Amino acid sequence: MTVNQASIGATPSRSGFLRRIAVEYGQELIVFSAIIALFIVVSIVNPRFISANNLTTIFAGNAYIAVAAIGMSMVIITGHIDVSVGALIGVLATISGSLAVAGYPIWFAWLAPVLVGMAINSFIGILVAYARIPSIVVTLGAMSILRGGLISVTGGDWITDLPSGFMIAQKRFFDIPAPLIFMVVLTVLAALWMRHTPFGRSLYAIGGNKEAALATGIPIARRTVMVFAIHGAFAGLATILFATQLQVIQSTVPPNLELTIITASVIGGVSILGGTGTVIGSTMAAILFATIGSALIFVNVSAYWLRAVIGLLILATVLADMWRRRAKS
Amino acid sequence: MRNTVLTAILALSLSTSASYAQSPWTGADDLPTNPLACDGTPAAAASMPYDGGVPTNAPDRKGKTIKVVDVPKLVGIGYFNATSKGIADAAAEMGNMEAKTDGPSKANIDDQITLIDNYITSGVDGILFAANDPVAIAPVLKKALAAGINVVGYDANSEPDARQWFVNQAQFNGIAKAMVDSMAAEVGEDGAFAIVTSTFTTPNQARWIAEMQAYQSKCHPNMKWLETVEAQEDNILSFNQANTLINKYGDELKGIFGMTSVATPAAADAVTQAKQCGNIAVVGLATPNAMKPYVNDGCVKSVVLWNPVDLGYAAAYVLRAVADGTLEPGATSVNAGKLGDLSVINGSEILLGAPTVFTKDNINDFDF
User: Is the pLDDT of residue A224 over 50?
Assistant: First the structure.
């Protein structure tokens, strides 16, 4: 059933174009509409909400979550999960910052988290694919190891005196904040790759129906390792934004960062059961979180509501997912 | 389904009424407050009977050279290096104390208990400690008291009857006064400010905010609190929240209080990147190391915390006074060398004094 999802775009559908869009991108449309609705309502309450500065805060401030959610979406679509990504980003930020402070070339300090992220996650992928340990177990273990290791190695000290050239998240190109460019370019590239390459499409097949994927000759184990490696690369790219936003790199990661990233994927329409979803959805969901967070302050609603709203969105998303699956079958 | 979600979001966006209430400040607890006098006169301490422990058959140590071991939560970090330095400074100044610091390499209560136990066995006259766990450390400290050893805590307390005295680095109303006074000095008596805290229910932060409100309404009544926002212990979220406050209030916002070592540097970064240094003051609780970049470039003028060198120094003087018998249950103050007389509070605690405001002139002398 879920394999069909990937092929809807390729085979002509009998229903109309709009209906096809609505079925295929239902969740993305919901999230997009929610963002637009919020912008309209809050801007009426307080026009400063759509000032250039606040748009920068909304679109650039959460870009690292969107970038990390791209890789997370691929992992979930393939039928796995990774709860260690928050700890991984903390470790990679410390590595990147330490290299920059130690005087290594800036490009190397940026490249290192991507490569180390790929290496660590390849190892996780091998345990998942070849040792056949469930990904939730492997990544729970990895989370403890990475978190514990980070505190032990840094002793809780923060990294300061970062060179100013390192701070790419604070830069602007053509007056557009760099994190926004990262987020948009990476999302578009990943979305195209997942939709138009055999490798990308095979992820939906693996997550949707493993036996069928195996029967069609997809090398599932190898692809699984590679998906985790790609996810590691996106975690590394997210780290670059995370580590260069402030002049200080902390040795602790934001609490529940991995859950925020997973939530972005799920609210963006990636089925927690695997097989469906897009990275456009997860990026829009990350933008939606940022929009809600800012909106709550602008309309003077307690931040407690942020959690309630996100909880509501998760429930609504899962219900919508089930409804669409039922409608299709 | 789509309708449900949109309706929910719209409903939430529009439910703005409740939070316009001006009092109390969001994020403050509702326990009684005890604001200090505006001019810094020490608060009259409510007298409370001594509730510390008493060593059994302690030998007469008056004036004699005593061997003291200092067991902090852990060694090798800047904060406890600083307390250790204070203890060593005091010992050198007094001339009749041999002090050494030996603590676990991680903040681990089991390692700390083992260490203290070993020192009881090997024989010392005094133990200084900063507990990793107030309850778990109590039995081994009681064992030390039973062996006639003088026991004094600092930084992190144990159960009161497991030690003789505890040197308290700061009280909530003292921190609150330093924070609000610093903000008033920077933004003026009619400035408006907002607060970035961890969560509205974090006990210490909620207590500080409640005391800040009490002190502000008493001593700086024309300052205006705008709102308090939560940022967990999340640096990027703190940065985003501070940015949103700047975007929302524009010129009205004159200052931001950071309530944690995570929120304060992130707020300072937001002000720096928004090019509002000099227009929006950032005053906060934070460790000097986290704030050095912002203090050194002039964007932040006041960082409030206690001075750990003074804390260790005071602890050593208190231990000496206990060993000499000059600090006895019921005393109201104790002499701590260059720090002068420190007051006894809460029965068996000694208050270090007003917190330290770190500025450009002294922040680089600290490494924690």
Answer: yes
Write down the pLDDT at residue B277: 92
B119 lies in the same domain as B157: yes
Residues 6+ apart with CB under 8 A from A262: A72, A76, A81, A83
Q: How big is the CA angle at B236 (ends B234 and B242), to the nearest 5 degrees?
A: 100
Confidence of residue B21 (pLDDT cuts 50, 70, 90): very low
- What span, in angstroms and rounded, lies between the C-alpha atoms of B126 and B144? 9
Number of domains within chain B: 2
Residue at B283 is within a domain: yes
Which of A263-272, B41-50, B145-154 has the highest average model confidence (pLDDT)?
B145-154
Domain range for residue B316?
66-169+307-353
Closest Cα partner for A60 from A159, A164, A171? A171
Taking the Cβ of residue B11 and every Cβ of chain A, the question of whether any pair is shorter than 8 Å is answered with no
Q: Which amino acid is at B31?
A: L
Closest CA to A85 of A25, A138, A32: A138
Question: Is residue B10's pLDDT more than 60?
Answer: no
Q: Cβ contacts (< 8 Å) between B14 and chain A: which residues?
A: 41, 299
3-state helix, strand, coil in chain B (%, to 5): 40, 20, 40
pLDDT digits (tens, 9 = 90+) for B227-251: 999 888 788 999 999 999 999 999 9
B34 within some domain: no
- Residue A3: the pLDDT is 42
pLDDT digits (tens, 9 = 90+) for B194-208: 999 988 877 788 889
Q: What angle, 0 to 180 degrees and rounded to 10, lies between the N-to-C axes of helices B288-296 and B263-273?
A: 20
- Rounded to a whole number, what is the distance in Å from the CA of A325 to chain B's nearest CA? 14
Residue of A nearest to B291 (CA): A248
Inspect the interface and report whether the beta carbons of A34 and B6 lie closer than 8 Å: yes
Residue B234 Cα, gap to closest chain A Cα (Å): 4
> What pLDDT is recorded for position A229?
96
Burial class (CB within 10 angstroms; exposed 0-12, middle 13-18, buried 19+) of B161: middle
CA closest to B241 among chain A residues: A294
- Domain shared by B225 and B346, yes or no: no
For residue B24, whether the previous peptide bond is cis, meaning omega lies within 30 degrees of 0, is yes
Return the half-sphere exposure (C-beta side, CA atoms, 13 A cut-off) of residue A126. Answer: 6
Please tell me the predicted confidence (pLDDT) of residue B32.
80
Q: Note whether B227 contacts A247, CB cutoff 8 Å.
A: no
Query: CATH number, domain at B322?
Result: 3.40.50.2300
B193 and B271 assigned to the same domain: yes
For B248, the closest of A161, A248, A298 (CB atoms) is: A298
Residue corresponding to tokens 């974090």: B202
Nearest to B13 among A152, A295, A316 (CB): A295
Q: Where are the domains of chain A?
A: 2-328
Shared domain for B225 and B289, answered yes or no, is yes
Reported as type and span, the H/E element at residue B71 is strand B66-71
Query: For the whole model, what pTM was predicted?
Result: 0.81
Taking the C-alpha atoms of residue B122 and residue B149, their distance in angstroms, rounded to an integer, is 12
**CATH number assigned to the domain covering A2-328:** 1.10.3470
Same domain, yes or no: B341 and B195:
no
Q: Which of A167, A64, A55, A71 is nearest to A110 (CA)?
A: A167
